[in-house]
From TrEMBL, chain A:
Domain of life: Eukaryota
Keyword vocabulary terms for this entry: Repeat, WD repeat
Gene3D superfamilies found in the cross-reference section: YVTN repeat-like/Quinoprotein amine dehydrogenase (2.130.10.10)
Organism in which the protein naturally occurs: Arctia plantaginis (Wood tiger moth)
Coiled-coil region: none
Function text: Essential component of the cytosolic iron-sulfur (Fe/S) protein assembly machinery. Required for the maturation of extramitochondrial Fe/S proteins. Key component of the cytosolic iron-sulfur protein assembly (CIA) complex, a multiprotein complex that mediates the incorporation of iron-sulfur cluster into extramitochondrial Fe/S proteins. As a CIA complex component, interacts specifically with CIAO2A or CIAO2B and MMS19 to assist different branches of iron-sulfur protein assembly, depending of its interactors. The complex CIAO1:CIAO2B:MMS19 binds to and facilitates the assembly of most cytosolic-nuclear Fe/S proteins. CIAO1:CIAO2A specifically matures ACO1 and stabilizes IREB2.
Matches recorded under InterPro entries: CIAO1/Cia1 (IPR028608), WD40/YVTN_repeat-like_dom_sf (IPR015943), WD40_PAC1 (IPR020472), WD40_repeat_CS (IPR019775), WD40_repeat_dom_sf (IPR036322), WD40_rpt (IPR001680)
Name of the protein: Probable cytosolic iron-sulfur protein assembly protein Ciao1
Biological process per Gene Ontology, one example term: iron-sulfur cluster assembly
Family: Belongs to the WD repeat CIA1 family.
From TrEMBL, chain B:
Pfam families, A to Z: FeS_assembly_P
The name this protein goes by in its record: MIP18 family-like domain-containing protein
InterPro entries (alphabetical): FSCA_dom_sf, MIP18, MIP18-like
Organism annotation: Arctia plantaginis (Wood tiger moth)
Domain MIP18 family-like per the UniProt entry, residue ranges: 37-114
Length: 350, 153
């Protein structure tokens, strides 16, 4: 042998991949949304069949633990757990938002928030769990305060969008709210401490069609949005007196689009999830595909680049409506689809 | 209460012939893919919401305005309102959508759009018809669903 010491070593380059852990059935018709419990060991799902199902693991398998019925008269569009994990809010086409808890030992609807004129499309809890935002077809965004046991008071009705509002999302640590709309824009709101009035302080304009969903990164200084225009956009907050020299008027932050991911999605992008542990972005698309994007190592903070690291073809047999990273950071992903199924995936890279 | 139709005297066209059955249609060894004619047959007899006429007779739908891609699972239908200000355009589009959603396998992505240049609110109507969430909400409205079912029946 003439010194080929390394010749039989095989170098395997591991490709990032999404492995299917389990397919869950149980809903009838479209499954619109899935939401992880904050501890990542259970999740809720909802859809066209007007039920909410709570799932947890029995041994190696996920199974339905509880089915919540009779809370809504029409489609349940979105459900969200409060940060403490004790409350579940559900937004419905029946114009109401219901709050569920299990103070009595089992899950019950103990409060119903009314006020929207028609379909409620989105709901989100603030990081403290003291505020709740809802949005809907009537073009408005409502901010509710948890006023006491099963009591919720309307703090603000924000009428700045001029079309259907699809989703709301809170900043990960501050009481700053963002909303996405059929009017192609995203709006950002906060409360003025002087008079406790909520107002819109930024309008993010760049998408060319409906903005379906949005997600803050872990710092809250960047926002990812996805749209019917088949793109994903990354926005960055520039505060007053920023080092980059971005002009900021009125002492309010300015949000700028610093990156557009185009050419990757072939149909409407319905949802986006930004993992706060790994920084990975996952998208749910009308072409039945789940895609994972990773920010490049040498990415410029003011003009970042993201690489498509994983394309899961036929993730579902119809449109993927929702994707969400497990909040514990274990690289698990939940997705759901028009095909009536929920799937659990594990992401792995080298 | 009788509402006057938007277009009181629409042009009426002859109905086309029935689909010609060829020998391959009976051959079990030949895979029957969806074609434009088949999609046309599914929607040609939808009734106009205002006139006792079909979408074919009003030339709202035509076989040449249908595209089918069996590999990509895509069906694209362009429809032509009888007048550029037709207030029924969204309802007609919705009826075509619902008919195809019910009749085609779930794998198909159905796109229903106004023939370019044939309607004043083309962009707004197309956007609404493409928004599956709004379509889903509309179909939970019993009054609307009844009207659509009457058009399709």
């Amino acid at each position: 042998m003439l010194g080929h010491e390394h010749s039989d070593e095989i170098y395997v380059t591991k490709m990032p991949k999404l492995d299917l852990e389990q397919t869950l059935t149980g809903h009838k018709g479209i499954v619109w949304h899935v939401s992880w419990h904050p501890q990542g060991k259970m999740f809720a799902s909802c859809g066209e069949d007007k039920t909410i199902k709570l799932w947890s693991k029995e041994g190696q398998e996920w199974a339905i633990k509880t089915v919540l019925v009779d809370g809504h008269k029409r489609t349940i569009r979105q459900i969200e757990w409060s940060p403490c994990g004790n409350y579940l809010a559900s937004a419905s086409f029946d114009a109401t938002t219901a709050i569920w808890d299990k103070k009595s030992g089992q899950f019950e609807c103990n409060a119903t928030l009314e006020g929207h004129e028609n379909e409620v499309k989105g709901v989100a809890w603030s990081p403290s769990g003291q505020l709740l935002a809802t949005c809907g077809r009537d073009k408005s965004v409502w901010v509710w305060e948890v006023a006491g046991d099963d009591e919720y008071e309307c703090e603000a009705v924000l009428n700045v969008h001029n079309q259907d509002v699809k989703k709301v999302a809170w900043h990960p640590s501050l009481d700053i709210l963002a909303s996405a709309s059929y009017d192609n824009t995203v709006k950002i709101y906060k409360e003025d401490p002087a008079d406790n009035d909520w107002s819109c302080f930024a309008t993010l304009q760049s998408h060319e069609s409906t903005v379906w969903s949005l997600a803050f990164d872990k710092t809250g200084e960047r926002l990812a949005t996805c749209s019917d225009d088949k793109t994903v956009k990354i926005w960055k907050e520039y505060k007053p007196n920023n080092q980059e020299g971005v002009i900021v008027a009125d002492k309010e932050s300015v949000w700028k689009c610093i990156c557009t991911l185009s050419g990757f999605h072939t149909r409407c992008v319905y949802d986006i999830s930004w993992c706060h542990n790994t920084g990975l972005l996952a998208t749910a698309c009308g072409d039945d595909i789940i895609r994972i994007f990773k920010e490049s190592d040498d990415s410029d903070p003011n003009a970042p680049t993201f690489e498509l690291v994983c394309t899961k073809l036929d993730a579902h047999s119809q449109d993927v409506n929702c994707v969400t990273w497990n909040p514990t950071g274990n690289q698990e992903i939940l997705s759901c689809s028009d095909d009536g199924e929920i799937r659990i995936w594990s992401f792995s890279s080298d | 209460m009788t509402k006057t139709a938007d277009n009181v005297n629409p042009d009426i066209y002859d109905k086309g012939s029935e689909r010609e059955i060829t020998s391959s249609d009976y051959d079990e060894n030949i895979e029957d893919l969806f074609d434009e004619r088949e999609i046309f047959d599914l929607i040609r007899n939808i009734n106009d919401p205002e006139h006792p006429l079909t979408l074919e007779e009003l030339r709202v739908v035509e076989e040449s305005n249908i595209k089918v891609d069996n590999i990509k699972n895509l069906v694209h239908v362009s429809f032509t309102p009888t007048i550029p200000h037709c207030s029924m355009a969204t309802l007609i589009g919705l009826s075509i959508r619902v008919q195809l959603l019910r009749a085609l396998p779930a794998r198909f992505k159905v796109e229903v759009e106004i023939t370019p240049g044939s309607h004043a609110s083309e962009y707004a109507v197309n956007k609404q018809l493409a928004d599956k969430e709004r379509v889903a909400a509309a179909l939970e409205n019993n009054n609307l669903l009844q009207i659509i079912n009457q058009c399709i029946a």
